[in-house]
Amino acid sequence: MSDVVTRFAPSPTGYLHIGGARTALFNWLYARGRGGKFLLRIEDTDRERSTPEATDAILRGLKWLGLDWDGDVVSQFDGRERHAEVAREMLARGHAYKCFSTPQEIEAFREKARAEGRSTLFLSPWRDAGPATHPDAPFVIRLKAPREGQTVIEDAVQGTVTFRNDQLDDMVCLRSDGTPTYMLAVVVDDHDMGVTHVIRGDDHLNNAARQVQVYRAMDWAEPAWAHIPLIHGPDGKKLSKRHGAVGLEEYQAMGYPAAGMRNYLTRLGWAHGDAEFFTDEQAKEWFDLAGIGRAPARLDFKKLENLSGQHIAATPDAELLPEIEAFLAAAGQPILSQAQKDGLSRALYCVKDRAKTFPELIDKARFVLATRPIDPDEKAGKALDPVSRGILAELTPQLQNASWEREMLEASVAKVAEAHGIGLGKIAGPIRAALAGRTVSPSIFDMMLVIGRDETIARLKDATA
């Protein structure tokens, strides 16, 4: 098999949509799993709507998702001379023609066709006109598309897709001001960049029928086509803001880990047996075009949370901390002090299990991020009644002399509980309130080990004061 080259080619007219992010991911997985190249092209030919800010947002989103690309980012606008050159070459080969029809003439043609109940597909009177008849007037260069027969696209996802050629127009390749159209630029760029597999949304399927004519006119090898279904909301309707977050960066700010997002988006419309949770290496090894379904995928936040939680639990602590810091920055939250970072590093082992998102993890780690005096919430405050405070006052000197290991801490607490004829659960509540200020937290012994002897005793003394 020749070297695989895929590409992601977004338009920089807004944020990176979650559907675009999945398209990029599928291209990345397909190339990386086959030792191929994954290229990035910014389709910035629409100068009015393209912005540098949108380009930056797309690059940030891809970097957060962990999708690295090969070589430099290609600007489609920069290749406009090359695109125009190909239009002129098709003209010279007889596969394109100069069309002098004005916008008014084209509209009049369509109005007449509508009135007569005919197809409004514009049939240019200049298609077969000889150069001798050409006026000295502005013209566009149109592709001379076949009028009879069918255009067949063999698609890796959609199967064999057939288009009647009498339904295809002679698309404009070069405008009258000499600028190339998007439809031409895409083909020229894909050819020049050596793209072997065009994996994109199925909203581009009709474009493939028109774009393939350029490949054939230029005697270029056609890429393999794979048009993937779009993502719908949970209600089965086209994804929009009413379903919640649609921009990829919003998901980072909501606290989903990149690995969980990659896993979830890979499973969104693609399957490998019953596998739900998998690593990047497994995804690269397993991902193929045959596993992509034809029906639109539905966004499922519960499944996303579930997978995210599994990835948080499975990620080594040293890798998790920088991602938590990046989340705080993306969410516009205060950055961690060095002391908080050190504390969180020590606490990760006991707070990362069963946390589905980073906000949940940080909430569980509040006991190590907070500073004295700990202000208990209303529920925790009720656990610190006079009797409980008296028991904590007895426990404090026992802990002062205990060896700071889990077994010894458990023994010290059990001894005091036994002396009062109460179970461990009864004494754990007040200790939890004193150390975390909450009724829900990691194990009291994990908290003691994480914050250390001095801080534990200081918090217990605060609570009994």
* Helix-residue proportion: 40-55%
CATH superfamily label of the largest domain: HUPs
**CATH fold-level name of the largest domain:** Rossmann fold
Q: What is the gyration radius calculated from CA atoms?
A: 31 Å
Write down how many β-strands occur, each being a DSSP E stretch of 2 or more residues: 12
Largest sheet: 3 strands, parallel
Molecular shape: elongated
On the 0 to 100 scale, the average pLDDT is: 96
Instruction: Give the domain tally.
Output: 4
What's the CATH C level of the largest domain? Alpha Beta
- Termini, distance in Å? 75 Å
Structural class: mainly alpha
> Unreliable runs, pLDDT <50, ≥5 residues?
none
User: Within the largest sheet, what's the order of strands?
Assistant: 1-2-3
Binned strand content: 5-15%
The number of distinct helices, counting runs of at least 4 residues, comes to 19
- If classified by CATH, what would the architecture of the largest domain be? 3-Layer(aba) Sandwich
Subunit structure: Monomer.
Keywords: Aminoacyl-tRNA synthetase, ATP-binding, Cytoplasm, Ligase, Nucleotide-binding, Protein biosynthesis
Function: Catalyzes the attachment of glutamate to tRNA(Glu) in a two-step reaction: glutamate is first activated by ATP to form Glu-AMP and then transferred to the acceptor end of tRNA(Glu).
Domain Aminoacyl-tRNA synthetase class I anticodon-binding: 330-463
